[in-house]
Amino acid sequence: MRKILFILLLSIFFSCVSFKNDAYLENPKNIYISEMQLKTEGYFYRQSLFKPTSYFNTTEDVKMIHAFFINQDGFTYELQGINGIIHYLCTKEFINENSFENAHKNISKMVQIQKENKIKLCNFYDGTADGKGLTKIYDQDSIKIQIYRAYGNGNNSYSTLYHLQEYRGKIINDSTFIMKKSIDFYNNKKEDINEVYHFRKSDKPNLSNYFINRK
Predict the structure, then answer these.
(1) pLDDT at res. 3
(2) Domain coordinates of the chain in residue numbers?
């Protein structure tokens, strides 16, 4: 009976999920990233400052890390706005320090908890597309990162739309790339950007390529 109920709940969930802009998504079966092109034993990150709100217990600009975990098969997982002054509940210990290094430490804690407990928590979820996508290298030094983001579907709280966000840029070396353009397919907005990403060696979460069986 429990198995039947579980299957029923899964069918309801997936029937309420829809993907937009699938036509723009790269074919994951045609992607391979070598270590000579980009390092993959860790993540690429950029630093940013965020004006504090009532959500943060500080009056200083919040130092945040935006990260992409990129695998050799192109599968990519995104973490946004990780900082050092929020206690991410999945982690055991908390150090309240508004620094980029402490934000990196929080990412490391998230990965370790997910790997050790073999749970799909701590901002790493294996069963949804939110924050997941593909990275492709083309024309030798050009890079494209595509990420799905979850949006509510109007007044239907049980329905989720996944829209594609795309970043394009240039590879400087195997440890650095610069994103020059972003395309938000949710509202068809194109924007020139200048976002530099550097590599940091680290463990990676245990996540399967969500897209390999979808194309």
Answers:
(1) 42
(2) 18-201
